[in-house]
Amino acid sequence: MSALLLTAAVAGCSSKEELPDMTGSQLQRAQDRAQSAGFTNLTSEDATGQGRAQVWDRNWRVCSQDPEPGEAEPDTLVVFLVVKEGESCPASTEGYLAMPGDEMPAYAGRNLMDAINQMAALTGDVTAVDATGKGRGTDNENDWRVCATTPAAGETIEDSVLFEAVPNGEKCPG
Question: pTM for the complete prediction?
Answer without folding.
Answer: 0.60
